[in-house]
Amino acid sequence: MEGPVNLRSWRHFLLIAEAGSFTRAALQLRVAQPVLSREMAELERQLGARLFHRHARGVRLSAAGDRFRLRAQDILKSIDEVPHELADARSEPVGTLAVGMPPSMGGYITSEAIKVYRARYPAVRLNVSILPGEECYERLVERYLDIGVIASRRGQRGLDTTPLLADDVGLFGAHQLLEGVPDSVSIKELAELPLMLAPAPTFVHDLLSAEFMREGMRLKTAVEANLWAVTELVRGGVGLSIFSECAKGTFDPGSVRFIRVLGPAILWSIATLSYRPVTPAATAFAGVLRAIVDQKSPQATWAPARDAQS
Q1: 153: three-class secondary structure by DSSP
Q2: In angstroms, what CA-CA distances link 78 with 71, 108, 109, 207?
Q3: Is residue 83 packed enough to be buried (19+ CB in 10 Å), middle (13-18) or exposed (0-12)?
Q4: Among 104, 134, 254, 292, which one is least packed by beta carbons within 10 Å?
Q5: Which CDD domains match (predicted)?
Q6: Pairing relation of β-strands 196-197 and 223-224?
Q7: Tell me: the pLDDT tens digits for 126-163?
């Protein structure tokens, strides 16, 4: 690398990579776009590699840019943590913790975890992302996250996982749409209902597809939309969808009914990267999550994973 290292330009590079646009990054940094462009041109010159490919909607990382992003994230994170580590010889949780949580836990577990964690560890700055399982896995592997809760499935390499809870999946819909439907339904009975789902690849979509194939049927959907839209459509009484049981906390039980789907279940696990040290902040967050699941499980039909597996 030619010339002195300018860590500020590294941080600006990471912001551009996340924003996918020089214009959006310049607005966030409150600098002129030409200044940012010149700074990135100088960084590319120092590294001897092209970091971005430009397209109509902005920029995307080149192969070299993606490799540099991973290294820059690790180096800058280590630098940022040095003052905290020196200031606290007792290794109490400090610094910034990037957390990924599934949407279904938002109203039942995530909000409580944030509340408890902030009260217990005020020196930690939480950066919480609500992400579908597959995206959470990808963000962990790409090192955007320090810790996340993911739906366990085959092929998830590079992670250390600890089971958190076993969760049934269920049919959610307005009471008037589910009038006369029993409290539990089979996969075959589910096939007769018009479902609204987020498109593949999502864990629920893939799980249902596999169950339908096992029964010799094909999963059909009446509406495909992103997860936020499907949630709002169910809340508005427009149609029916499938979520994990943890999503019950997202809906008003007076308006939306939950019906268990017999057979499939989801094992949620706490995940961290296997080849990176787990920080005290991440370890503490995992402990808070487990305590909340233990506390809430008597009022829920799902169970802590260690109980469900015994």
Answers
A1: coil
A2: 11, 33, 30, 38
A3: exposed
A4: 254
A5: PBP2_LTTR_substrate (cd05466)
A6: parallel
A7: 999 988 767 888 889 888 899 999 987 766 778 899 99
